[in-house]
Structure formats: structure tokens, C-alpha cells
Specification:
- By secondary structure, this protein is α+β, with helices and mostly antiparallel strands.
- It has 2 domains: 110 residues, 2-Layer Sandwich (Phosphorylase Kinase, domain 1), CATH 3.30.200.20; 189 residues, Aminoglycoside 3'-phosphotransferase, Chain: A, domain 2, CATH 3.90.1200.10.
- The chain contains 10 helices and 11 strands.
- The strands form 4 sheets. Strands 1-2-3-5-4 form a 5-stranded antiparallel β-sheet. A two-stranded antiparallel sheet has the order 6-7. Strands 8-11 form a two-stranded antiparallel ribbon.
- The two termini are 32 Å apart.
- Belongs to the fructosamine kinase family.
- Keywords: Chloroplast, Kinase, Plastid, Transferase.
């Protein structure tokens, strides 16, 4: 959902809310005790001036914030760092983000900001420190983005099945990533089923919940005659989470990673602006599977339901329309 990086502003929606040297260690030991105490009360500053290999922070700039996190740029004599903080949520959310960024980074395919450190804030809340990427003036070449994303999907595989090592969040909604051997079961229970239950609990929406569950129980024919391998997914790929660096290379950020069917990556395509050159380049690396067009809306449904749960009834009709269309298609 919504993100601006450089800053990265993590809203997660289409719409806004509707490593230390010996010299350095010696330098620390010469500080007065009051300074040491102050350092321990600021873990972000402490990390940057030790493991971050900086000797001084020259400037701290606020680069925005959203419904969920605040973002800052820390300029130092060792380069710049990007920092997100949240004053009310513990480290688990940023730990999930860091693990996702790390997994994508390790594929050595598409550029993502390298995560450095996650931790709690002394007064409550949490922070994440990561690589600061200077963005270019344009989003970058769509065909390069498509090819790089497909290369990530091809390189990022899991032998554990579908899921992720930790639960994370899609926006501020919990995203359950319990390892599951069967994709239809995983998507039905931990993606659509979870969102449908939220709609029932939050709005008392029995109609969308009951119809949605009928779809979940009968959607297997949409996956006939294909083999689904777990691929590393960004998980929340819309236009605000896509940019390019100053060299024009694509950058993706603010992930909600898990291992899933590669087609599920396009669930936010209604808010991503992918064009023909993107899909042509993607399918040259990851060939299109039989029935792709019939499953496309099924993967959009997860994100429409999440927007409904996060932002209200403005997204309900889109979710219900998809459910009704599939119930007619499947004749159930």
C-alpha cells in the first residue's frame, strides 16, 4: 500500500489515509558518562555512530510520514541512512519488513533498500534503519521492471512451501504466513479467508463473508492444469512502492513479502500502472500460465478486501463485484 521512499512513506494503499573501527570504539570510551547515557537512550544514533561506521551525524531531515510510520533521512560522514519509526507498534512489524527486504536483496535481481537494523524505541514503539537510495526523476523503464521482477520470482524459491518465516503486515493489517504445502489452501485460508473474517468482525458484513467463503470453497477449477511453485513475492506492489534510482534502475520497497504463486504479485495491478511492455518483458522470463486471465481478478480480490477493511465501504462494491463474477463463472 502507499509509500514514498526518499523518503519512504509507508501508508500501504493507493490513497493516503480515506557496520565499528577500533578508533571509533576508543572515541566512545573517552566520552563523558552523561554522553554515554544519552546515547543509550537513542538506539538509532547509537547504531549509526558504531556499526554504521559514522563518526558524526551532520543532518536529520524529516521526509514525511503517513498513517503508519514516520520517515527520516540521517546524513553522516559515512553516507546517508533511511530511518522509519513507529511510536505505537513494537519491532515485529519492522522485523517482518527487514526479513522481506533481506530476502529480496539476496536474490541479487531487482534493487531494494538493504536493511541494517530493527529495534525498540526506549519510550515505546520501534524503528528500522536501512540503505538510503537516491531516487531518479522518473519511475524507470517498464520493460526493465518487468524483467527484473520476473528474475526475482525465478531466483527466490522456497522448499518450505507457501508462506514466510514470520507473519507480517499488508498496510497495517496482519498478514498470516503460516507455511502451507498447498497454494489453494494457503490463499483461501490465509489471504481471502482472513480478510473475509475481518470484514465480518469489523462491519458485521455477513453477505460478503458468506459469498466469499463460497468462492474460497469452489475456486480450485481456476487452477487446473498448472504447476504452482512458491516464488518470493514483494506482496504489495503498487505504484507508490515502485521507483528508480538515479541511474534509472528500478527499485521496489515497502514489501509485504511471502512465498506464493507468482501471479499473486499482480494483485495490486489496479493501482500499479503496469503496461504492455511490463507484462511482455515479465513473461519472457516467467512464461504466462494457462488461465492467467481468469485468475487475475482473484488476486486483486485480496487487496480490495484489505482496502475495504482498512479504509471503509468505498472498496466494498469492487470486492463484491469480483466475488459475484466468480460465483457466476464457477456456477456455484
Amino acid at each position: 500500500m502507499v509509500a514514498l521512499h526518499v523518503g519512504i512513506i509507508s501508508f500501504n494503499s493507493c490513497f493516503p489515509c480515506l557496520p565499528g573501527s577500533r578508533l571509533l570504539r576508543l572515541r566512545f570510551t573517552k566520552r563523558k558518562s552523561s554522553s554515554v547515557a544519552a546515547m543509550s537512550e537513542d538506539p538509532i544514533r547509537e547504531w549509526i555512530l558504531s556499526e554504521g561506521k559514522a563518526t558524526q551525524i551532520t543532518k536529520i531531515s524529516s521526509i514525511g510520514g503517513g498513517c503508519i510510520n514516520l520517515a527520516s533521512r540521517y546524513d553522516t560522514d559515512a553516507g546517508s541512512f533511511f530511518v522509519k519509526t513507529n511510536r505505537s507498534i513494537g519491532p515485529s512489524m519492522f522485523e517482518g519488513e527487514a526479513l522481506g527486504l533481506g530476502a529480496m536483496y539476496e536474490t541479487r535481481t531487482i534493487r531494494v533498500p538493504k536493511p541494517f537494523k530493527v529495534g525498540p524505541l526506549p519510550a515505546g514503539g520501534s524503528y528500522i534503519i536501512m540503505e538510503f537510495i537516491e531516487f531518479g526523476a522518473f519511475r524507470g523503464n517498464q520493460s526493465v521492471l518487468g524483467r527484473k521482477l520476473a528474475e526475482m520470482h525465478k531466483a527466490g524459491k522456497s522448499e518450505k512451501g507457501f508462506g514466510f518465516d514470520v507473519d507480517n503486515t499488508i498496510g497495517s493489517t496482519p498478514q498470516i504466513n503460516t507455511w502451507t504445502s498447498d497454494w489453494i489452501e494457503f490463499y483461501g485460508e490465509h489471504r481471502l479467508g482472513y480478510q473475509l473474517k475481518l470484514a465480518l468482525d469489523q462491519y458485521g458484513d455477513t453477505s460478503i463473508c458468506q459469498k466469499g467463503q463460497r468462492l474460497v470453497k469452489n475456486m480450485a477449477p481456476l487452477f487446473e492444469n498448472i504447476v504452482i511453485e512458491p516464488c518470493l513475492l514483494h506482496g504489495d506492489l503498487w505504484s507508490g512502492n515502485i521507483s528508480s534510482d538515479k541511474n534509472g534502475e528500478p527499485v521496489i520497497l515497502d514489501p509485504a513479502c511471502y512465498y506464493g504463486h507468482s501471479e499473486a504479485e499482480f494483485g495490486m495491478s489496479w493501482c500499479a500502472g503496469f503496461g504492455g511492455s511490463f507484462y511482455n518483458a515479465y513473461f519472457e522470463v516467467m512464461p504466462k500460465q494457462l488461465g492467467f486471465e481468469k485468475r487475475r481478478d482473484l488476486y486483486m480480490l485480496y487487496h480490495y478486501l484489505n482496502h475495504y477493511n482498512l479504509f471503509g465501504s468505498g472498496y466494498r462494491s469492487s470486492a463484491m463485484s469480483i466475488i459475484d463474477d466468480y460465483l457466476r463463472l464457477l456456477n456455484v
